[in-house]
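Quick illustration, no need to memorize.
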Amino acid sequence: MEDAANTPQKEGMISDSEAAEKREQVARTRKMFRVR
């Protein structure tokens, strides 16, 4: 899942802040699934 945020960043498709935002969303989603 993290690769989905990292790959476009490496290719210059999205900015660092956008990639960081995506990683935060991934982390939040993981926490939600862990709680259930």
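The CA atoms of residues 16 and 25 lie 14 Å apart.
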